[in-house]
Amino acid sequence: MYELAKMFPTPDAVLALERDALGAKILGLLCKRPPNQNQGMFLLSGLIGELWPYPTIPGHQSLFPQNKRPEIDLAISEAWAWLEREGLLVPASDINGHNGWRVLGRRARSYAQNVNTSRRAAPVTFPKELLHLRILERAWPAYMRTDFDNAAFEAMKAVEVAVRDAAGYGLEKIGVNLIQDAFSQGKGPLADTTAPAAEQVSRMNLFWGAIGSYKNPQSHRDVNLDDPVEALEIILLANHLLRIVNARAKASSSPSLKSNVGP
User: Fold this and answer.
1) Which residue has better confidence, 180 or 6?
2) pLDDT in tens, 205-237
3) SS3 letters across the chain
């Protein structure tokens, strides 16, 4: 009954998480609960109540100090609202939903079916402030709702779009051909012509390999990426590539390249 409190060693461990990270942890907890418990329904007040059992009953004292309750309750409520916004928790049918009861959405149910039988697990906590804005727009929300395939795809698509924008190309340039032209040794608009020829080719191959390995497969088939650590690694690789694109755009003498790439 007190699994939520036991997930966090201190109140600050709860408050340090942003609503999506905390929501992902709550979702992982809910998915592990027996489907016959409360007929598969969940109540926000019930979840919060687990953190604050009756202090007068021996052995049922809260693990958290009461002076932290307003902050912690607000954090849990924000995470719950995020789960609802993402469609991971939806109103139960009939009067139950009107009374605040929620059930797992379809995507969350799929996650619950796999949570005990595969590598699939809740997303890894990571400081979002280190992520590029293009990653934060689509890839990170997909990751936090455990849609790891789409998160990897969106991260690498962000790289492709950023390269096209920074190089000043039109929509006809796509995939590895786009990368080859943009970083072509000695003449590509994003090539660092001050670097040795071998390094320019290596930079092109770095982008080429990333797009070919992690963006194109997701474009054409279901990859079934179910490891949150592997998905985060792909996102971080895309994050690094985006910073390289930013640096090359800023180093260019063309004002249009500087303005197109974004922050």
Assistant:
1) 180
2) 999 999 988 886 665 445 578 788 899 999 999
3) CCHHHHCCCCHHHHHCCCHHHHHHHHHHHHHCCCCCHHHHCECHHHHHHHHCCCCCCCCCCCCCCHHHHHHHHHHHHHHHHHHHHCCCEEECCHHHHHCCCEEECHHHHHHHHHCCCCCCCCCCCCCHHHCCHHHHHHHHHHHHCCCHHHHHHHHHHHHHHHHHHHHCCCCCCCHHHHHHHHCCCCCCCCCCCCCCHHHHHHHHHHHHHHHHHHHHHHHHCCCCCCCHHHHHHHHHHHHHHHHHHHHHHHHCCCHHHHHHCCC
Instruction: State the pLDDT at residue 54.
Output: 61
Domains, the chain, with CATH or none: 3-114 (1.10.10), 128-260 (no CATH)
Residues 5-9 have a mean pLDDT of 76
